[in-house]
Amino acid sequence: PTVAQGQLSTITLQRYLSSLVSSDESLREMEGLMLSIAMACKTISTLVNRAGINQLTGLETDVMGTRSGSQSGKGKNKAKKNIQGEDQKKLDVLSNGVLKNALKFTGKLGLLASEEEDEALLIESALDSRYVAVFDPLDGSSNIDASICTGTIFGVLEDDTVELKNEYKRNNDDCVRNADAECVSSTEALLQPGSQLAASGYCMYSSSTILVFTLGGSHPVIGFTLDPQLGEFVLTHPNMRVPKRGTYYSVNEGNSWLWDASIRHYIDKIKRGEGETKKRYSSRYVGSMVGDVHRTLLYGGIFGNPGDVKHRNGKLRLVYECSPMSFLVEQAGGGSCTSDGGSVLEVVPESVHQRSTCWLGSIEDVQELKSYLTPEETN
Ligand code: P6P
């Protein structure tokens, strides 16, 4: 469903979603989830915008001395690490709590996975819910102290094990067992390929706060901008479509000496104006996936985190970064692929925090890149 340009500013997220549900009752639960995610994003937006004022910049610390039992108790502060071994920022922890609680209290999710949580969260009271959610609560948080854009990335999946669970007996060791009493991981609903997403999106915290999402199927990619005066997300991008071609490439060239030769060759060609369009491409790279993907969605071009000899699978996480973003870009008429030319959306995750190489953007730019990619070789 799209709306005439003139009507845009009067349509809030709440009104848009309720109009969807009135024509399709099966979206009732999804409406509740999206409103909870939007509420959490409003809170995170305020936290991010006031980080400097509320001394919420900097690292989440773990006071060492008191743990090692030193007399003084004035231990040296040491940054806490997430399961990725990355320093956690204060706002990573806060944003994670805000989103986790917002989703838990919907009572509509039995399972959550977050970049900031080592293990998937089982919500006993809602284990038989229809959906599970995956999210990166504050992607690009290393940019926070410099007030560069950050974002929340989320995905919603049908819990395809719910029916099975009715046959399984829950076991007190927190796994579900099938009829043969084999332990079936109760978190397998999270390990679905991106093609199975029921919804995905992001909220970007930048010069404005913009919530962009899609419900897949016949639904558009749609964007709502937070009106600080109203405190409401209002419809500003009714039907986002990626231009078929762009003139920007967005990748961390600092790693180019470590890339596979095929990728170095591609980037070299397009920056020299020797690619298919014969136009010279410019580099645009914020180092914050949500900002780089949002620009690519609007202006076209190609974004990538290709992996290299040191990080074969790149830096981005499949389940809550690559899959949701690839799903959204492809729904907007763009393309996506891994660095060996495969489909991001067909990669079946083996673990919640696994990484994947990822390219996404204008369909013709992604197709041109794929013509350079050789099967992934060891360097
Ligand atoms: P690199 C931020 O840490 C992040 O997860 C994404 O937001 C961003 O696209 C990527 O890492 C940046 O990676 O290797 O360029 O620092």
TrEMBL record:
Cofactor(s) needed, names only, are:
Mg(2+)
Q: Does the keyword Signal apply?
A: yes
Domain of life of the organism in this record? Eukaryota
Per the record's keyword annotation, is Metal-binding included, yes or no? yes
Q: In its UniProt record, which GO terms are filed under biological process?
A: fructose 1,6-bisphosphate metabolic process; fructose 6-phosphate metabolic process; fructose metabolic process; gluconeogenesis; sucrose biosynthetic process
Looking at the record, the residues that make up the Fructose-1-6-bisphosphatase class I N-terminal domain are 24-238
The EC number of this protein is 3.1.3.11
Question: Looking at the record, which segments are called Disordered?
Answer: 64-83
Task: Give GO cellular component annotations, separated by semicolons.
Answer: cytosol
Q: What class of enzyme is it?
A: hydrolase
Q: Which UniProt keywords apply?
A: Carbohydrate metabolism, Hydrolase, Magnesium, Metal-binding, Signal
Q: Which terms does the record give in the GO molecular function aspect?
A: fructose 1,6-bisphosphate 1-phosphatase activity; metal ion binding
What does the record give as its pathway? Answer: Carbohydrate biosynthesis
Where does the record place the Fructose-1-6-bisphosphatase class 1 C-terminal domain?
242-373
- Which reaction does this enzyme catalyse, per its entry? beta-D-fructose 1,6-bisphosphate + H2O = beta-D-fructose 6-phosphate + phosphate
Instruction: Report quaternary structure and partners.
Output: Homotetramer.
Say which family it is in: Belongs to the FBPase class 1 family.
Protein name, as recorded:
fructose-bisphosphatase
The scientific name of the source species is Triparma strigata
